[in-house]
Design goal:
Elements lengths: L9 E7 L15 E9 L8 H5 L6 E8 L6 H9 L9 E2 L2 E2 L5 E5 L2 H17 L9 E4 L3 E3 L7 H4 L1 H11 L1 H9 L2 H10 L2 H9 L17 E5 L5 E4 L3 E2 L7 E2 L8 E6 L6 E6 L5 E6 L9 E4 L4 E5 L19
Parallel strand pairs: 6-7
Antiparallel strand pairs: 1-3, 1-6, 2-3, 2-8, 4-5, 9-10, 9-17, 11-12, 12-16, 13-14, 14-15, 15-16
Helix pairs in contact: 2-3
Length: 324
């Protein structure tokens, strides 16, 4: 297994069209240590952006991710990757055409290849796309970082990036193929009516009439939709609101903050970053030192007791209770 210089970290390399659009979806997730935009798969050394754009170097625009598989497994990177691309397009991606914009998964080990092949086969069998899945799985080779101006483009050129991303059609494509009516129907079957209304329609539960507002058991709370670990019972406190309250999340990277004006005043709403589920709100009236109160609906979470963590695949989080 090819590893990053830090013990236990691995590399993942994905080509998904313009590399500007391939950073933000992975950035700042738990276990993601770095994301570098660059060029790979070609026959020239140290190519420039202009040279790759001539389509004569054979290189793909790609991103290389250094990650900790114990925190964020390779399979989850693949899940995100498939939702960023059109895997049936062999001539580029969206409005960007040419070989340098083709999709490919560059694998760094036999283990990664096996997981990538299985993931590709599962996608093909799902019937989500009518066309053939043409994304290739190729051995990783030399990777050349792109020029500084192309690194973290979504942060350093926010206005230009937003215009480009919206105009590319990526968002519309993802909405069409990854948020289908049948996906919603399957979600309705998995969730209770209350869970569905809270997570998908932004409903809030009544105070004191919810499952976890006064929970005193040790364990963690996970996203009821996709299982991401959100909060630990050790950080839960009684805020006097009749709803679960926490001083901090387990991983800030699994949360997304959005402005919420529904109550007639500005508030900060909390959503699951990868699930898209509505969770609750963040207030700045919590206990010191941070002074934050993450107020979360019980229906948006599932509680995993401390003694069940290993069995349910959350063994890593037993360390949260060491010495307790």
């Amino acid at each position: 297994m090819e590893q990053d210089k830090h013990q236990g970290w691995e590399l993942a390399t994905f080509a998904g069209g313009c590399f500007w659009c391939m950073v933000q979806p992975f950035d700042e997730l738990p276990g993601i240590h770095s994301i570098v935009s660059g060029y790979t798969g070609g026959h020239t050394e140290h190519p420039t952006y202009e040279e790759v754009g001539t389509e004569t170097t054979g290189h793909y625009e790609a991103v290389q991710i250094a990650f900790d598989p114990n925190v964020f497994p390779y399979e989850r990177l693949l899940d995100i990757y498939w939702q960023l691309i059109d895997p049936t397009d062999a001539g580029g991606q969206f409005m960007d055409r040419g070989n340098s914009y083709r999709t490919a998964i560059f694998v760094h080990s036999g283990e990664q290849r096996a997981k990538a092949e299985a993931s590709k086969q599962e996608l093909a069998a799902s019937g989500r796309f009518k066309g053939n899945i043409v994304t290739e799985i190729l051995p990783a080779g030399p990777f050349y970082p792109a020029e500084d101006e192309h690194q973290d483009y979504y942060k350093t050129h926010r206005y230009d990036y937003n215009l480009y991303h919206e105009g590319s059609g990526r968002g519309t494509f993802a909405e069409k193929y990854w948020r289908r009516k049948q996906d919603d129907a399957e979600l309705r079957k998995r969730l209770t009516r209350l869970q569905y209304e809270v997570t998908q329609h932004g409903a809030d539960e009544p105070p004191y009439e919810n499952a976890y507002w006064n929970n005193e058991r040790d364990g963690i709370y996970v996203d009821v939709v996709n299982g991401d670990p959100l909060f630990c019972s050790r950080d839960q406190f009684d805020a006097g609101t009749g709803l679960p309250a926490f001083t901090r999340p387990i991983h800030e990277g699994f949360l997304r903050r959005k402005a919420d004006l529904r109550s007639g005043k500005a508030r900060t709403a909390l959503y699951g970053r990868l699930s898209g589920s509505y969770l609750g709100h963040l207030f700045h009236d919590g206990p010191p030192p941070a002074g934050q109160r993450y107020q979360v609906n019980s229906a948006s979470m599932r509680f995993v007791p401390r003694e069940e963590l290993e069995r349910e695949g959350y063994g890593k989080y037993t360390e949260l209770f060491e010495g307790v």
